[in-house]
Amino acid sequence: MDLYSERDLQKNAEQMRGAAWWLGVPSLILLAALILSLIARVQWATVLITVLWGSLLIFLWSMKISPVRAYRRHLIALSRGLTRTAEGVVVSFSQEDTYKDGVYFSALILNTDAKMAPEGERLFYVDRCKERPPLMPGDFVRVTANGNFLTAWEKRAEAEREQ
C-alpha cells in the first residue's frame, strides 16, 4: 500500500497558504499601526508595536510555518529520491514518536536476514501523519523506502518467506 501521492503535496500547499494568511493579515495590520505611530512620533507605541510584531512573527513562524515547511521538504525528498525494496520480518514497531528533520515518525525495525541474525535488522521511519500500517512483530512484509523513510508496504504470506 502506497503511503504518499500527489495529493499530499497539494494538501501541504494549501496548509502553507493558510499559514501565510495567519502571518500576513496580522502583519499588515501591525505594519499599518507602526507607520501611524512613526508618523505621529509616539515612541512608546512604536516600541510596543515593534515588540508585538516581532513576537508574533517568531511565534507564528515556529508554530505554523516551520512544521509545514519541514513536511514539504520531506515530501519533496521522497518524490525525488531513489527507492529500494526490502523484505523481512517485523521485529518491532514503535508506538512512541521519533522526531527527525522536523517531522514525527514511528520506528519500524525489520530483519531482512533469512537466518534472523541481528546484523540483518534495518530501521525504517513511518510517517505519523499517515495511517499507521497494521504491522505486528512476526509479520512478513515487503517495504519500499526512500533512504530510511517508508513509502509503501505490503504484507506477505508466510509461504513466500522460504522462497
What are the defining features of this structure?
45% helix, alpha+beta, 6 strands, 163 residues, single chain, 6-stranded antiparallel sheet
The best one-word shape is elongated
Helical amount: 40-55%
From the N-terminal CA to the C-terminal CA, the straight-line distance is 22 Å
Order of helices and strands: HHEEEEEE
For the largest beta-sheet, the strand count, sense and barrel status come to: 6 strands, antiparallel
Rg: 23 Å
Number of strands: 6
Mean pLDDT metric: 89
How many DSSP H or I helices?
2
Give unreliable regions as ranges.
Answer: none
How is this structure best described in words?
- The model has no long low-confidence stretch (mean pLDDT 89).
- Strand 5 (140-146) and strand 6 form a beta hairpin.
- The protein is 45% helix and 26% strand.
- The two termini are 22 Å apart.
- The protein has helices at 6-40, 43-80; strands spanning 84-93, 98-100, 103-111, 121-127, 140-146, 149-155.
- It is built from two helices and six strands.
- Helix 1 packs antiparallel against helix 2.
- Strands 1, 2, 3, 4, 5 and 6 form a six-stranded antiparallel β-sheet that branches.
- It is α+β, with helices and mostly antiparallel strands and 163 residues long.
